[in-house]
Amino acid sequence: MKKLRVGIFGIGHNHAAAAVKALRSRTDVEIVGLCEGNEMVLMRKLSEEDAFFGIPVFSKAQLFAARPDAAMVEAAVPALVPLAKECAEYGMHIYMDKPAGTDLSAFRALLDTVARKQRCFRTGYMYRFNAGIGYLMQAINTGRLGKIYNITAQMCTKHPLWFKEQLLSYHVKAPVMFIFGGHLIDLVLQIKGEPQTLFTQHTCSGNDGLTLEDTSLAVFTYEDGIATVRVSACEVNGWGMREFTVYGEKGTISVSPIEATMRVRETMLEESSPWKDCTKEVACKEQGRYDAMLEEFVRTARGELPLRNRLEHEYLLQKYTLKACGYQVEENRI
User: Which residues are CB-contacts of 77 (< 8 A; sequence separation ≥ 6)?
Assistant: First the structure.
């Protein structure tokens, strides 16, 4: 089978360089070229990131004219959905970074186009393909943990000033929840589904002299449990405390740190005691952050794997991410 021809549409996203580098490492992919509508961003990225070295630079029109099979959409966050929609209209398979903007109706239009064109659509939520999260999901899906009650999750970092200023430039509510919360909300919805209620709280620490809601909490309530999602941009070693923990009737599994370096721990009911820590560590091989995700996308786009789009889930994920940020959103479905 011939190589998958991929166009890189935008390189302004913070994950662009790492994602493109992972894509370039594949022998079954040909990168046709890249385009970036912001000339300043283009020059800066080309000078700072070796991931883009040697890739032909086109205008958007020229890249469309080259007719790639697939698009990797790595534009700055506000431009993701409109650019992906254009690519979908051209009939390309779509890998789009996240989050999917604040206009839920525009995102729904993109998903409708993908469904009509019957193309592969994937978003860059890398924890879906994290080996530790995969181990956890398998335990849930096979019933090892029994009924799932509660979930605690956090994704924090002590972000540098320039990054927080970038968050402010998006002009969105609760920007830290907007950018990071979706990773965790994605998993919560997969495990527990839609909540009965959702409570949120956002605070501004004043760190670095910024007026930025830099710590946010979202509480998803269910008839039989609670899931908490916490994100922050002002916590020293927040990276090392990133956590996704699931508490079931038969056991608990925690992935913390979630990555680099990943650590998976579990406690099963029959091995536990109410008054002592009976956790054991599970050996679980860590992968490259984007490798498994792009493996699945490329093989699906090449027709080696079934399509398996989860457009309803993608829509719900963005809806609840926006709700967790404080947006009032419509209840439309695909």
Answer: 13, 97, 99, 101, 170, 179
* Rounded-to-integer distance, Cα 11 and Cα 46, Å: 9
Q: What is the per-residue pLDDT across 203-250, written as a single tens digit (0 to 9) for each? A: 999 999 999 999 999 999 999 999 999 999 999 999 999 999 999 999
> How far is the C-alpha of 186 from the C-alpha of 316, rounded, in Å?
9
Q: Buried b vs exposed e over 136-152: b needs ≥16 C-beta within 10 Å?
A: bbebbeeeebeebbbbb
pTM score = 0.95
Host H or E run for residue 148: strand 148-156
> Structural domains in the chain?
4-125+291-311 (3.40.50.720), 131-282 (3.30.360.10)
Between strands 70-73 and 93-96, the pairing is parallel
Distances (CA, A) of 256 to 190, 198, 239, 253: 19, 25, 10, 10
pLDDT in tens, 155-190: 999 999 999 999 999 999 999 999 999 999 999 999
Residue 217 near residue 230 (C-beta atoms within 8 A)? yes
Residue type, 154: Q
Of 256, 174, 188, 254, nearest in space to 217 by CA: 174
d(CA 256, CA 88): 37
